[in-house]
Amino acid sequence: MIPVKRRIYSLLMLLFLSASTNSRADKPKLRIGDTAPPLTATIEGHPAESFQKGRIYVIEFWATWCGACLATFNHVNGLVHALKNEPITFISVTDEKKVNVDLLLKTRPLQTRIAYDRESKTFDTYGVRVIPHTVVVGKDGKIVAITNPLSLTKEVLQDVLASKPANLPEKTNISADLEWDKQIDANAPEALAQVIVQRSNADSGASHFRPNSGQIIGDGISIGALIQIAYNAQFFEIKSKLPGDDKKRYRISVRSPDGKDATARTLLRGVLSTLVGFSARWLEEETPVLVLTHISGAAKPTFSTKKKYDGFARSGEIDYVAAPMREIALTLGMIAYNNNVVDETGYKDTYDIKLSWIPGNKKSFEEALKSHGLKIKKEKRKVRRLYIQPVQRAGE
Q1: What does the pLDDT look like over 33-64, one tens digit per residue?
Q2: At CA 227, angle to CA 285 and CA 254, rounded to 5?
Q3: Is the pTM here over 0.90, yes or no?
Q4: CA atoms of 123 and 127, how far apart (whole Å)
Q5: What ranges do the domains of the chain cover?
Q6: Dist CA 248 CA 226 (whole Å)
């Protein structure tokens, strides 16, 4: 699940299905049985109409940059088609500009009605903190389900039409809290060194690991994602044979005694290996990878005059200041390819780079890279892989 906060700072956050927490803690909590608030949004340039008695409404909250949202399109389209002759209206609410939505829908069609909530008033009224988010409004105008879109089925919606209860898992809509450890004991002296791992009930996940801080904070994170942090690895670099349920989520707080990131990772590795029971080692292997290179004769990306590397990245957009090319390649691998992207541009400086493309559209992405004199090709290279093996823990 992805929180509603718009910008994902790649230096500070790692994405694991999810992203940053939303600081809008004042959003109301709607409950099943409540009267559905009106949609403060426009549909086809006109204010959204009021809910009609005798008709049910499926309201989806989403964004073009939300990969988890895009992954639901086929499922939602299937429901629209299967129930096209029933008194059901499907509405997808976004707070983005129409031009951005139109570009995406040219390549990723969505068969629902599109509602534009540019001031996020409907998001706020419905208390949406984490997307995708689905609300089903019954024939009497009251909320009958608050859930995830993939939980909806034709049978469930037919039950709602028949005025039967919607037997769906209720979404708790709890966003990750990146300040949870401050509540442990506000009056205690500051910890010189600590590693705390607790269970989390957050629907979204986020981590904050500012470079050169020696501190890691996270909430709503799986064991697999914690291993990524501990070993400074990307998910596509890990080959794990760990059994178990990766749906379990945790919150962590790590502080190294010397303020070094490497020490913080070492502390976390020790706790995780004891908690889960595994061994890990890096190995090199030759495999097909994606290679970022420059286009012969093309101008270089813009050299940065700034000293501090900063910016954000999300599906369809990268905006970096003073970024090393290796970090640009890494980001491209994470959000565009889910695979290694090796930097072979030969560029050693730092660069200001803005890329904008239609998520899922290969041609659009290639054109965005080309505008900076860059391209990606597929070749075999030696790359490292982190092999995770389960081991028996003491006493088992």
Answers
A1: 999 999 999 999 999 999 999 999 999 999 98
A2: 140
A3: no
A4: 6
A5: 23-161, 191-280+386-390, 286-384
A6: 12
pLDDT tens, residue by residue, 160-218: 999 998 888 777 777 788 888 877 766 667 777 889 999 998 877 888 887 788 999 99
CA–CA gap between residue 14 and residue 200 (Å, rounded): 17
Structure tokens at 96: 């983005």
For 189, other C-beta atoms within 10 Å of its C-beta total: 6
Cis previous bond, 165, omega within 30 = no
The length of the chain in residues reads: 396
Query: Two tokens at 280?
Result: 């890990």
| C-alpha span between 256 and 246 (Å, rounded) | 27
Kindly state the DSSP code that residue 234 receives in the 8-state scheme: -
Number of H helices, E strands in the chain: 9, 21
Q: How far apart are CA 15 and CA 22, in angstroms?
A: 15
- Per-residue DSSP letter, 142: B
Q: What is the DSSP letter of 337?
A: I
Q: What is the pLDDT of residues 302-349, one digit of tens each?
A: 999 998 888 888 778 899 999 999 999 988 988 888 788 999 999 999
At position 40, the amino acid (one-letter code) is T
* DSSP strands (E only) in 16-102: 42-43, 46-47, 56-61, 88-94
CATH number listed for the domain at residues 23-161: 3.40.30.10
